[in-house]
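User: I'm preparing a small set of examples for a lab meeting where we compare how different chains pack in three dimensions. I only have the primary sequence for this one, and I'd like the structure in token form so I can line it up with the others. Please keep the answer compact; I'll paste it straight into my notes.
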Amino acid sequence: MEEANGRSGHGGPKRQSFLKGIIERWSTITFLISQGTGILATVLFQLDWQFQGSEIIATIVWILTILMFVLFSLAYISKIILFPKTVHRQLTSDLTELCCLSSPSITFGVIINMVALVCAKAWGPSWGMVAYVLNWINIFIAFTVAVGIPYAYFRRTPPGIDNMPPSVILPAISAITAASTCGIVCFNGQLSARAQVPMIITGYVLLGFGLADAVAIIFIYMARLVNGGFPNKGQVWVNYITVGPLGQASVAMQMLGKAASAPGNMTFAAYNKGTFLTRSAGQVLGTVGTLSGLLVWSYGVWWLLFSIAMTIHLGFFADGGIREYSLSAWSSVFPWVRFSQYLDRRWSMFIGS
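Assistant: Understood. Below is the structure token output for the 353-residue chain.
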């Protein structure tokens, strides 16, 4: 007991108590950092405008993301083991803490993207199969998160419309990110048509219920704003989360369509069964993916401009502006980068940075 409370006169127990204090205060919000760096690595590697060393920088950022993801995961798992009552209290009383449990799935998805983009390109189809297997694991996690977390806060901590924070959209983003990863892995993983088709179909399922959930939550959040529930200065960065699912969904639509109609793979043409899994259907999906992605992305334009206006207003003109840094600022990185990627990858690094 003395060791846990840090009352011992020896140096070792005090250091252990200090470490336990850090672990006890650890928050799921920290996963937003690895989520943001992961998407930066993905976009840096996919830039249409390449400069000498850009792929090396992307790989370094990717490795940094993996290290942070492992470190943050170990820290939070340690917190669950050492302080289960604290974890239970936070998850049942803090809606943002609960919803940020979606971020590990999102981070895992963007890490898998780089396995398909970097490793499969450098070392062949065997690494594409590694990305394929890892993505099926993440698909299961994304399904669980996208259904389980909303059920938890509806059942235990329903916020009501006037207190609905944008962070509740994170579970839907995990499903949409998994859908996007399905398209990237199939398009870049050098897989057979027999392996790709089930993952492409699953990607569309994830995209369907993830996007529907996200749009429903965005409408509820808009109702909160109509009712006068304008966020305070500390919540201004979180408002960009509303852009995330729209930008990510547009990329998912595009990547799944490209995977279905890719000229190098001709996925649906090679599979060629039934009336849907055919070459002509794959070509249609490629075109429809671009068009529907543009429509969803266009709705994201409104929320991006609205969020920028809110940031300018609260940051420079309201009650002295924003003067304190918080981890919630990282919630703006993922939406910015994913949103800009659909328009033109040459601008993604500039806008996202």
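A couple of notes for your slides: The first helix runs from residue 2 to 5. The two ends are 47 Å apart (CA to CA).

User: Perfect, thanks.
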